[in-house]
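Q: Sequence in, structure out?
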Amino acid sequence: MTQTLSMSVLYKKLSAIGFPKRFVREKGLPSWWNEELDNKPVAVLEGAGHIAQRLHIDLKSLLAENQKPQFKPLLHTKFKYHQQDKADVPDVAHQLASRVAEVVADAIKLEFKPIPSDPHQVRSEIVAKHPQVTLYSLLDYCWEHGIAVIYFKDYPKKTRKITGMIQWQCDYPVIVLSSSHTNPAWLAFHLAHELGHLALGHIKEGILIDDDIKQDSDDLEERDSNQFAVKLLVNSFDNSLGNKKFNNAEDLKNKIIQLVQNDSTIDPCALALNYSWYNKDYFALSMGCLNLIKRAKEGQKTINNFLEQHLNWDELSDDNADYLDKILGE
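A: Exactly. Output:
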């Protein structure tokens, strides 16, 4: 690289591929970095190494003059889109999520135990230990079966996001959830959907990316995973409310509470979401009902609390530990 090596040069190159300066400063550089180092070539070279590792970028391309930075190659990746004919690749998001999965796998030793393809069997195993199928009990089930789960949505603001990802790393699957909906019931459904992909054999190696999880997907594997998730969460109560109209969220809540008296293993919040799953026009009503049942909006903390309990920080390099600490501190 013949031009003077400075952070301003790197910021410009990184911005061109979707990483604005502020994001690079906050997430790409280590905690000890300060502006006094921005124009010191030796320091910038070290900083570039940190950036390349954290953002999954080939260091040589980042440093090369007049060359666009290139992402490092990923494992074979299967993309699941809401509509397959309108598909493009969300590069930045899935590269960052993949890197996080790698970092986590470096600090956790797990042995994967295959899960049944029958959601009712999975449900039976969960309720044998827990009173309900909830985000917490699903997470406990995942970790017991050697499936790591992470909540991560630390993407640049204008980046096209992903909803979920499964990545095989160190001989076990790592699930990354990225939904902006952090109510535990939302995240439980997304986790159950990803479990469906694993249980039904949709991914046995490499990476699977869920662009978005929708009921009307035209992808057969997406529909099958949706059905797996629904049966796991609400058992035979799927669409039990049909398209019945309710005057308000309180009325819907009362009906749901009445229903779950017949099966206490069903989380009433899951039924509130199930109602909106089939009745998109009543989404706001369902969300109001969800808040009336349980005003809990920090499911991401439950996910990463499980993660922290399993992490062996001593297995991480100082830079990876610093990066992961920033992620878990969100």
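The chain has a mean pLDDT of 92.
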